[in-house]
Design brief:
With 156 residues, the protein is mostly beta strands. The protein has one helix spanning 2-21; strands at residues 22-26, 28-30, 36-40, 51-55, 64-67, 69-71, 74-75, 80-83, 92-93, 95-98, 108-110, 116-118, 123-126, 136-137, 139-142, 152-154. The protein has one helix and 16 strands.
Length: 156
Amino acid sequence: MFKFSALLFFVSVSVPALLVSANYGQPIHPDGDTTKCLDVRGADFADGTPVQIFDCNGSNAQMWDIMSGNTTVKLHGQNFCLDAGSQPANGVPMKIWECFDGLPAQTWFYTGDQRIALLGQGFCLDLTNGAHVDSNVVQTWTCTDNNSNQIWTLDA
């Protein structure tokens, strides 16, 4: 009886925590602008395809899997991740690349203040020039508090 009770306790505590922190198949919006989405240019799911801002259209090119805390930013249903390249710096354009576990260029941290930061590297996903215009390729930039170019919101 004790083992059964302990198992029920574990399940009732663990499952809700996972459901709250995971967001699968969600659009990612720049600074709360729900008309614009993080988008894979031309829905071309291939290594090196640029990641841009585009009008939200519900396509697979705009659906991302992301979790609070340490995370990858992965295209839903695909094996492509948001990738900052081998030498992240200010102004480096973002792209997708095949996902590899533990790769620093694909290891992000979704912060409590809604920034998507490269884990331990001091760079954040940044809306280039703050422009909410179609085809604006996003970049990495030094993480800065209260920088609206680095705020990324989810629907859920």
